[in-house]
From TrEMBL:
<keyword id="KW-0479">Metal-binding</keyword>
<dbReference type="GO" id="GO:0016818">
    <property type="term" value="F:hydrolase activity, acting on acid anhydrides, in phosphorus-containing anhydrides"/>
</dbReference>
<dbReference type="GO" id="GO:0003677">
    <property type="term" value="F:DNA binding"/>
</dbReference>
<protein>
    <submittedName>
        <fullName>DNA-binding protein</fullName>
    </submittedName>
</protein>
<dbReference type="InterPro" id="IPR014905">
    <property type="entry name" value="HIRAN"/>
</dbReference>
<keyword id="KW-0378">Hydrolase</keyword>
<dbReference type="Pfam" id="PF08797">
    <property type="entry name" value="HIRAN"/>
</dbReference>
<feature type="domain" description="HIRAN">
    <location>
        <begin position="3"/>
        <end position="56"/>
    </location>
</feature>
<dbReference type="GO" id="GO:0008270">
    <property type="term" value="F:zinc ion binding"/>
</dbReference>
<keyword id="KW-0238">DNA-binding</keyword>
Length: 97
């Protein structure tokens, strides 16, 4: 299977992105109780909890990233990713299989 990338968005609603580093591991969890998005996937860090969400809008998905809707059925209830690019508009990660 080819590499699957996703964008973390909403970082400024939590802790920002200044502390993030390339190759850090992030933890994905399907947010089944999200009243706004039935395909929401939260992005979490050990010790902090939720730091954002997998982008699910054409305006927030960067580059060749999968949207949360595309990613939702490709992962179990929980998965992991590694940070690859830290940009002003979001953080691009690679899904870890």
């Amino acid at each position: 299977m080819s590499n699957i990338y996703f964008t973390i968005t909403g970082l400024n609603h939590y802790y920002g992105n200044e502390f993030l580093e390339k190759e850090m591991v992030v933890y994905l969890k399907k947010d089944k109780d999200n009243e706004y998005d039935k395909e929401a996937i939260s992005v979490n860090l050990a010790g902090l909890g939720k730091i954002g969400y997998v982008a699910n809008s054409p305006y927030t998905v960067l580059g060749e990233s999968y949207s949360a809707g595309r990613l939702y059925d490709k992962i179990e209830d929980e998965a992991q990713g590694k940070i690859k690019f830290i940009l002003d508009k979001g953080v691009v990660c690679e899904l870890v299989e």
